Amino acid sequence: MRFLNDRMGLDFSWYQDNTRRQLLDVPTPVESGISTLYINAGNIQNKGIEIQLYAYPVSTDNFKWNTSFNLSRNRNKIIDLYPGRTEFNLQANIGEISSWAVVGGSYGTLRTQIHSESFQAKDASGNPIASDSRNGMPVLAWRSDARAAFPKRSNTWQNVGDINPLFRAGWDNTFTYKNFSLNFLVDSKIGGDFVLLSYRYGTHTGVFPNSIPGRDAQSGGISWTSQYANDRGTYDDGRIVYGVFPYGQTVDAPNGTKVDVGGMTFEEAYKAGYVEPTHTPQFFYRYGSSSTGVSDYWILKNSWIMLRQAALSYTLPKKLCSSIKLNTLSVSLVGRDLGYLYQTLPYNFNPQSNNSNNTAYSGEEGFLPMTRNFVLSVRASF
Q1: Mean pLDDT across the stretch 107-131?
Q2: Which of 274, 299, 324 is the last residue before a domain boundary?
Q3: Has residue 369 got a pLDDT over 90?
């Protein structure tokens, strides 16, 4: 649709596309003599909208402003895969987080077995208690050798994210004054989950600022003198770990007795004198290690707004161009990928440093810094 003598316009599209009979590899029993069977199967549905608005808000002899805004929103859904299968591993793995196609879900559902386990309170008969303040808190693992508590892995498959954004949008503007032209393009992606493996490693090794709180008294660490007979040291790096001990968990208390702390929060066990504060370095070491770490904190929403391009151009007057036997001559200075106006990832991680151009990936495994590009161009027509 166009209005006001083409000074304003709207382009709207709605679509639904079903892709069927894609090539899928099906694992087979080793007794068959082959490892994989390739078949054509599946039905993936993509449904969405695309909107573009454009306008010329100002148009005079010397000054013009041309602007356009576009927005797209896509939703994909796995309608079916093949008989007997409701999920398919897309083989896009980053640090024990994998991307899946799940029937009823999307292409790009993030799944893992190392997410934390949530506590569910139970009564004496083992029946779940619906209204309990501890429900949903992380279940805590306990290392007796380090006397440290940290979130416990569930060791069961959990859906922990979705790589698909809520929407994509862009805003393009061109301002023209006589022979000068200024253009800028803003690009954005809102929503979608991103796997930050470097964030896990940096937390595990204590090199990121999120591992500072509690490291010493100055940064909020608890000071105490250990009452264990084989310790008696004085420390200032203690922390009260958020979570609940699983039912049946026993600990060696400072007084030398073995105590059942199952169902108690760490804070409750600490106040009762059953445990001492967990050393903050020990907590973060376990929080991100390959053997005990959980994925909770390094799967993050990845939204960003970027100044994708800015360009300043000058076009020589036609009279001057004619004198040197040219139709037109222009000079432009263009900058691309100039910076993020907004982003949700921590510590200046590049939100577009994807591990692969495979559409099933959404994450990084080795941080790639952002690069800016500047171009000086001269264009002539004869």
Answers
A1: 94
A2: 299
A3: no
